[in-house]
Amino acid sequence: MSWQRFFSYGIIVSLAVPVFPNVYSRLLTGKKPSELKKTVLLYPIAGALIFILMAYAGMWGRIAIPGLKGAQSDSILPMLLAKYAPAWIAGILGAAIFSALMSTLDSQLIAIGQIFLKDIILPIRKSGTLKQNDAIIGRILVILFAVIAFIGALMQPKGIINIVEWSFGGFACMFFPVIAALYWKRCGKTAVFGSIIVSQFLSIILPLGIVPKSMLFGMLPAFWAMVGGFISLIVLTYITPAQDRESTKTFFSAFATKSAYSPV
Questions:
Q1: What is the largest CA-CA distance in the chain?
Q2: CA dist., res. 156 & res. 164, Å (int)
Q3: Whose CA is closest to 166, among 138, 208, 127?
Q4: What's the predicted TM-score (pTM) here?
Q5: What is the pLDDT of residues 213-254, one digit of tens each?
Q6: What is the sign, positive or negative, of the torsion defined by CA atoms of 198, 199, 204, 205?
Q7: Distances from the Cα of 195 to the Cαs of 105, 119, 120, 261, in angstroms?
Q8: Cα–Cα distance between 170 and 247 in angstroms, integer?
Q9: Would the pLDDT of 197 be above 90?
Q10: Of the candidates 124, 176, 142, 145, which has an alpha carbon nearest to the alpha carbon of residue 19?
Q11: Is 193's pLDDT higher than 50?
Q12: The pLDDT of residue 198 is above 70
């Protein structure tokens, strides 16, 4: 792997995880603000530890079981357990892996069901409040997306790395718009939406080979999609009018220590 691809993976994975919808759901499970702060502070440490161990497991597997290509490398962890661990340890570790997978999967399904319900169904229905039967709709959506994911798994994609490159890249493109919306007073919804559209458009067309690979300079397509989205965010922020002062002041009063409004 070239240093450009390695660098791209590092940037994409680092910026994608903080904007996972299911991560927000987990961070907001605390009953008190103090618990939320502790979770937010500890999560990057836990995430770094997990991804470091994942990377080392991959490198150890490449040395111990060479020659794996494509989707074959997705099974490296079970292969290592079967080759080097006693059966009872392999069973315990295997159960732990599936437990972690199920925990992440169910939180992702619940998050996407909530997003679809609140951001799509409610606006279409022109109702800002949830009704009693919306819980049933949410459960149906969770089952529907689970079935879609299962069918996608049966289609035997090329490998988990290809899926990670595309899906993590799409999430990473959301990082700059989310941060700008939360902390940049000058940024407005036009700039945020424009950045999302540009970055997601690039993340779709660049992997298709429309742009020659030589123009990517060895970087992953998602990296340049992030760059395009970031540039669009900056440009659109300064060429579009600032948000209303009163609404901006009200929104940022929960974060800012000073009450003065000064768009920059």
A1: 65
A2: 15
A3: 208
A4: 0.74
A5: 788 888 888 899 999 999 999 999 999 888 778 777 877 776
A6: positive
A7: 28, 19, 20, 24
A8: 30
A9: yes
A10: 176
A11: yes
A12: yes
Output the CA angle 254-29-32, nearest 5 degrees: 55
- Six token digits for residue 19: 């904007």
Q: Which amino acid is at 46?
A: A
